[in-house]
Amino acid sequence: MKLFELTVGLRYTRAKRRNHFISFISLISMAGIALGVAALIVVLSVMNGFQKEMRERILGVASHVQIFSTGTALADWPKVAGEARRNPEVIGSAPYVSGQGMLANDDLVQGTLIRGILPEQERQVADIDQHMVAGRMSDLKAHEFGIVLGQELAQALHLKVGDRVVLITPQGQVTPAGLLPRLKQFRVVGLFHVGMFEYDSGLALIHMSDAQTLLRLGTSVTGVRLKLRDMMQAPLVARQLAGTLTSDAWLSDWTQEHANLFRAVALEKTMMFIILLLIVAVAAFNIVSTLVMVVTDKQADIAILRTLGASPGSILVIFMIQGALIGVIGMGIGVAIGVVTALNIRVIVPFIEKVLGIHFLSPQIYFISELPSDLQRGDVLTIAVTALVLTLLATLYPSWRAARVQPAEALRYE
User: What are the b/e assignments for 294-329, b being 16+ CB within 10 Å?
Assistant: First the structure.
């Protein structure tokens, strides 16, 4: 691109008195691109924030990788845990016992997932103890039959710390009257609230030795839970462990266990990107009408330039520069507004809520009561490049028409 083409292209972006309407349309196109780019950045940042928040809350209770027996129980779990810890990505391991049960308090009954844990090792793979609202995880002691409940589950059963609750398990015992379920009374020693209804309303923690006694597992466990240095490496680490473990066991990672949830979030993010991209596309293709009017208005100028020796390619570049400048300025303004808004969303949204007197995400309804934001450089770059590409595509046809103007035809009636 020559200096001549750049100079003329920039000159044409400044409207004279007689064509303010063209300049107005250019400003509208610029504003539309800026609005679309800013909206895309903010929306994708908020969706990334929700995805990150959900992942952290889920993995605060679940584990990155689980190793469990191909049969009913894992007998050599200390050996399995030791072999898993040899992988440099594994930074924590803890055995667990899992089973289904029912909790009963007077005439109130709730189904629940029973998880037997070793409190001192559970801290290595989960952070439930950081979400305790009453009691402590360390209050779970062997053979004392204490139980830690999710806050929603405790409220449904009208329980508080210190109360007694009956745990009913399907592993029954044979009596002359038939097969009867096993019942054991537990004392509530703690309550937790992780912000995920699935766990707050359906998970009960007891000491692993009590779970082994209740479920008749002896010294065996259901499996071993692992925490990794980088949770995103979970599928790779699971495949590596499958080839190094000497015991016969199955492995699963968090991306498999919660695949549907995260696929739904990823699909929603993709669809929102496509829908909001239409705003940018509409604004970008407004440039077509702007440049078509400019080309019509500048017929004589184009003819004179061609007469003075300008090639059709130079005319093409001149008008592409004019359209591209609209896109670059709009994209730049949009990126600036979007990035600033995404980085300050936790300040902006409370201010709007205070002014309007409303709460967008009520904590009584939503488990995430504040709009999270996770601005990712890759998203910003993708949006900026896409906006520029759409802008350049929009300049091709009008610029091509300008390059085809014949000097004799354009100057015939001048």
Answer: bbebbbebbbebbeeebeeebbbbbbbbbbbbbbbb
Alpha-carbon distance of 240 to 221, in angstroms, equals: 23
Radius of gyration of the chain (CA): 32
Distance of alpha carbon 61 from alpha carbon 77, whole angstroms: 20
**Residue 172, pLDDT score:** 62
Instruction: Give 163's pLDDT tier (boundaries 50, 70, 90).
Output: very high
- Token couple for 209: 């030795």
Distances (CA, A) of 386 to 32, 143, 272, 331, 382: 14, 62, 15, 10, 6
DSSP 8-state assignment for residue 186:
E
Calculated CA dihedral for residues 121, 122, 127, 130, nearest 10 degrees: -80
Could you state, in order of their start, the residue ranges of all structural domains in the chain?
A: 3-56+261-409, 63-256
| Overall residue count recorded for the chain in this entry | 414
Please give the pLDDT value at position 114.
92
Q: pLDDT by residue (tens digit) across 204-262?
A: 999 999 998 888 888 889 989 999 988 888 889 988 888 888 777 888 888 887 777 77
Token digits for 346? 């936790």
Mean pLDDT, residues 102-120: 91
